[in-house]
Every structure is written in structure tokens, then in C-alpha cells.
Amino acid sequence: xxxxLLASRIRDVPDYPKPGxxxxxxxxxxxxxxxxxxxxxxFARQARVAGATKVVGLEARGFILAAPVxxxxxxxxxxxxxxxxxPGAVFAVSYALEYGEATLEIHQDSFQPGDRVLIVxxxxxxxxxxxxxxxxxxxxxxxxxxVSVLMELGFLGGRDRLAAESPQLPVTALLTV
Length: 177
Known about the structure:
The structure is a single chain. Strand 7, helix 5 and strand 8 (143-152) form a beta-alpha-beta unit. Helix 3 packs across helix 4. By secondary structure, the protein is of the alpha/beta class. The protein is globular, with a radius of gyration of 15 Å. The chain is built from 6 helices and 9 strands; from the N terminus they run H-E-E-H-H-E-H-E-E-E-E-H-E-H-E. A 7-stranded mixed beta sheet has the order 5-6-4-3-7-8-9, with helices on both faces. It starts with a helix and ends with a strand.
């Protein structure tokens, strides 16, 4: 089963980046071609089922996951970056973090009218980053068609937040932690 394969390749790192946090390190999964291929294939399947014409990857680990998905699904890849990292005209969306605020940016010309966009990231936690990406995609005139993540930290309520803000948008996690 794909979930067992992927889970076996994710390493827990206690007390990182601060005491009490258990960081989910995906580098062992990325180093295993069979696991990386299985994950990429599943996300590409989700993109095809959703009729996606573009895949968005969220900075930074989402880039690593989303780019090969776009190649396999034969659709475009669009990076969503932290503030100040993209040249040219951007839409910016600010959102709350546990200890402050962050801003995501996307090029204003990232999409064509009618583009359908699958958002891919490594982790769904509180849902703030995904919600900001959804808003940025909509500002560009495209339609978000799903959020696909490797892991969902269910105890942080991200799925509920996204359901409240975008009730028709499917959220898929390959693993729930």
C-alpha cells in the first residue's frame, strides 16, 4: 500500500525546530526513487482526475513535490513564493502564522482564463498557507480544483479551515499524522 511505503520513508526529528515539535523529515522519501515515484504518480493521478491544467507548488518543499507531478501529468508548474522572491507583477496574500504573519506571492500572469489548478504541498497543518494560495490563484482568475498533500497533521485543523473557507474544494492527504 502506498501509505505504508511513504510513511516508512518519513523520519521523525524530535525537538526541531524547537522543543516540543516533532518535525516530519521527508528527505529519506525523496532519496528513495520508488517511494518518490509512487508519491508523484498518485499526485499526477489526482491532477488528471481533477482536470487540472496547472500544478502549484508552495515554497519550499512543495516545489520539490509539485514540479515532477506537473511533468508526469503533462501540465504546467507554477511556484507560489514567499514575499519578495518573484520578479515582476505579483498578487500578494498575507496570512496569520502561530507567531506573526507571512505573505505569499504569485505572478499575476501565471494562468490563462479557464485554468484549473491543483495545489501540492508536503504538509497540511493549520491550513493558512493553503488558504492563502487558494486566494492568490483566484486573484489570478484561475480555479483551484484541489489541495493534495503528502501529510496532514489532523490535530491542527487545517482541513476544517479549508472546508469552512472553500467547501467545494477537495483536500487529499496521502498520510494523516
